[in-house]
Amino acid sequence: MGLLLAAVIGLAVYGAFHGVRLYRADAKLPGDLAIALEVGATRTTAVGSGIDRLGMRYAPSVLRMMGPKRVDALRRRLDMAGNPGGMTVDRYAARRAVYGFLGGFACFALVIRGQAPLGIFALVYGFFWTDVIIRVAIRKRRDDIERTLPDFLDVLAVVVSAGLGFRQALERVAEKYKGPWSDELRITLRQMDMGVSRREAFDHLRKRNDSDQVSMFVTALQQGEELGAPIVDTLIQIANDMRRTDSQNARRNAAKAVPKTTLVVTMVMLPATMILIVLSFYYGSGVDFGNILG
């Protein structure tokens, strides 16, 4: 059974690198799935691309089992994660199919060998690993955006005060920044180029990001536009509010860390220190406690 499992895993890895050869020359995929194979190809690895090609034929079945509501929720999570590794909805379904199959087969093999806990772990890993990747990417992207946003607003305020319009200043500053926030701004500017109003484009920006600071930025910007407040003063005020919020969050996280540190010291370090002191006293004193205690 162990040799069979190793052989199957070896074939899966080989197919990941050479997935294209597993298809017949006349095999055809629907147009949207064929395009999904190429979306984000520069951001994914060779193994990831091979896994996508192996599971792409099963992607429609996975999406049908998920249902429209879950697919819409998945699309929103992918937007918030920034499509990590070039992942699209179809790529997610393809990887879910491949990882689920490998996890189920590993679970079956391990249960037969009497290793049920490891089998359950392999099954859970296969079904939920892709979701874990998306969750981690969402958290990392949100942290990057919240760290970049205050400095970006300061620079934007300086450029606007120099005489450029808000739209031109936004384009100029976005070109100088790298990272997820710059990508989000480029998407917003592209939507405005396609005829979407500025308010609606920034509403889409807020929906794509699960960040309180981005929501604060969009809300304050729209309110300043409605009330006729100077854009420079609005940007500076938003940046100051964000820094104040970051400071409060840092103090709150530090306050939460104190009980955890105390628990670790009490449960681990204190007993170990007491044992070390007692043993040092015992070996250093040379007293025969057997005679004293009878």
What's the story with the biggest beta sheet?
none
Question: Which residues sit in consecutive blocks of at least 5 with pLDDT less than 50?
Answer: 1-9, 11-42
- Count every helix, treating DSSP H or I runs of 4 or more residues as helices: 13
**Order of helical and strand elements:** HHHHHHHHHHHHH
| Helical fraction | over 70%
Shape: flat
N- to C-terminal distance: 59 Å
Give the percentage of residues in beta strands.
under 5%
Rg value = 28 Å
Q: Output the structural class.
A: mainly alpha
| Overall pLDDT metric | 76
Number of strands: 0
Please name the defining characteristics of this protein.
294 residues, mainly alpha, 81% helix, 0% strand
Describe the structure in brief:
This protein has 294 residues and is mostly helical. It is 81% helix and 0% strand.
Give your account of this protein's structure.
81% of the residues lie in helices and 0% in strands. With 294 residues, it is an all-alpha fold. It has helices at 2-17, 31-38, 46-55, 59-66, 68-81, 89-112, 116-161, 166-176, 180-193, 198-208, 212-227, 231-285, 289-293. It is flat. It starts with a helix and ends with a helix.
